[in-house]
Design brief:
The structure holds two protein chains of two kinds. By secondary structure, chain A is mainly α. Chain A is about 75% helix and about 0% strand. Chain A has one domain. By secondary structure, chain B is of the alpha/beta class. Chain B folds into two domains: about 270 residues, no CATH class; about 170 residues, Rossmann fold. A six-stranded parallel beta sheet of chain B has the order 3-2-1-4-5-6. Chain B is elongated. Chain B starts with a helix and ends with a helix. The chains are: A mainly alpha, B alpha/beta. At the A-B interface, helix 1, helix 2, helix 3, helix 4 and helix 5 of A face helix 1, helix 2, helix 3, helix 4 and helix 8 of B.
Chain lengths: ~100, ~475
Amino acid sequence: MSTALVTDLTIFVLALLVGIEVIGKVPATLHTPLMSAANSIHGIVLAGALLIGLTAHNFVGYVLAFVAAFFAAANVVGGYVVTGRMLKMFRRKAQPEAVEGRKQ
Amino acid sequence: MNSFTTNIQLVYVLGAACFVLGLHLMNSPATARRGNQVSTAGMVIAVIATLVLLIHEGSVTATGWTVLIIGALLGSVVGLYSARTVQMTAMPQLVSMFNAVGGGAAALVAVYGYLHDESAPGGVLGSTTVFTVLDVIIGSVTFTGSLIAAGKLQGVITGQPVIFKGGRLLNVALAVIAVAAAAFMLTTASLPALLIVVLASLAFGVMMVLPIGGADMPVVISLLNAFTGTAVAMAGFVIGNWALIVAGALVGASGGILTKLMADAMNRSLSNIIVGGFGTGDSAVVAAVAGDAQVRSIAADDAAIQLAYASKVIIVPGYGLAAAQAQHGVAELAAILESHGIEVSYAIHPVAGRMPGHMNVLLAEANVPYPQLREMEEVNPEFARTDVALVIGANDVTNPAARRPGSAISGMPILDVDQAKSIIVVKRSMGTGYAGIDNELYANPKTSMYFADAKRAVAELTAAVKTLVG
C-alpha cells in the first residue's frame, strides 16, 4: 500500500467522522436545505471533470469530458442557487406587513 | 508532487475547510444562509484552483478547452434555470436530479481515468482499479436510480411499486454480473469488463428503485444522496484529489445520517424499504371504516368556533396539505388566529413531505416564521395543554396504535395529537394512510372529522373564523 493511498484513506475516514459530527447537529427544520447543500458540495466533482481535460486528446476523451463537465456544472450551480433560494425563505418573523397585522 | 501541485492541494484543503464550516453553520436557520455562502466560496476557490492547474500544466488542447467550457456553461445554464424555476413542492425531484448528474459525473471521471491508464505504459494500478470499479458501480447505480426516483416523484413513472415476476432474481443476477466483471478487472485490465460493470450497474439502479413505492422516497433520496457522495469520494481516490475525497465523505456522512433518521421515523429498516413491498404511493386507498369505529364529522362553522375560542392551537401538516397546495391558506388562517391572540405552532413529523424536512421548506415558503415550526420531540409535551390540534393531510404519524405492539406501525414515533383537548382532522375520506391501517385517532371521542380537500377546507375555515373574530 503506497503512502499516497494511506494519506488518502486517512483523509477520507477523518472527513467522514467530521461529517457525522457536524451534520448530526443540523435541526430537522433544515434537513431539506442540508441535503440540497450536500448536493451542491458533491458538485466538486466538477474539478474532477475539468481535470479530464489534462489528458483528453481523442474523441472519446472529449465526449467524456463534455458530458462530465455538463453534469457537474449543472449539479454545482443548480445546487447552490436552489439552496440559497430555500434558505432565504426561512425567516424569524413573518414579512413586515404581516407583523403589523398581528400586533392588533 | 512538485511544489506547484502541492500548493494547489493546499488550496483544495482551504476549499474543503469552507465546506465543513458551511455545513456547520447550517445548524441554525439564523446562520444557514451564511453557511451556504461560505460553502459556495469554497467551491469557487476549488474550481479556480483547478483551472489554474489546467493552465499551468498547459496540456489541455484547444478542443479540450472548448469542450470543457461549453459543457460547463451549458450545465450551468440548465442548473441555474431549474434551480430558479422549481416549485418548492418539486424540491425532492430536483435534489434527485442533482444526485443523478453528480453520480453520473463521478462515474465518468473514473471511466475516463481507466481508459487513459489502460492505454498508458505500465497499465492500471491495482489499488486504482478498486476505487475505479467502486466509483463506477456506485455512480452508475446512483445515476439511473435517481432518474427513476425523480420520475416517480414527478409522476412520469407510476408511484406504485413496480413489481414483476423474476424482478428480484434479475436484481441478484445484475449485481452478480457487475461484481464478477469488477473482480475480473482486478486481475486483468479490461475495457470490455468495465463496460459490463457500467451497463449492469445502470440496469441495477433502475431495478433497485422501480419496486419502491412513492411514499418511501424520502429514504430513497437520502440513500442516493449518500451514494453520490461516496461515488465522488471514490473518484477522488482515482484521480488523487483531496477536495473530492473530503467533499464526497461529507456528503456520504450527511446522506447516511438522514437515511437512518428517515428510516427510523418511518419505522422501517433500510433493507425492508429496498427489498420493497408496502410503500404504496400517493393515492389514498379508499378503505371501509372499521365496523366499531364511530366517527363524528364537523362542519366549517363549528370547527371555526373551536379554533376561534382556543388559546393554543397546534397545526399538524402532512403531505396531503402540500399535495393540495394548501400551505399558503394554512399560513393565512394561522396569521388570523394569531392576530386574535391565539398561540399557533406547527408540529412537524420528520417524514412529513416527500424528503427529509420538506414540510418546513413548504411552510417557510408560505411565510411561516421558523420559530413556529416545531420538531416532534419538542412539541409532543405541549399537546396536553393544547385546546385544538388541527390535523391537515397527515395520517399514520398521528395514529396512537403505534404505541402498542401488534400493528403495522408499532414503535413508529408519532405526534401525540390525541393528548390535545380537542382534535379536528381535515381529510378527504376515511381512506387509510400508506401503512394501510385504520387510524384510531379518528374514533377518539375528542376528534371531529372535517371531510374535504385540504385547500377547500382551509379556505372555508378561514372564512368562518374571519366572521367570528371579524
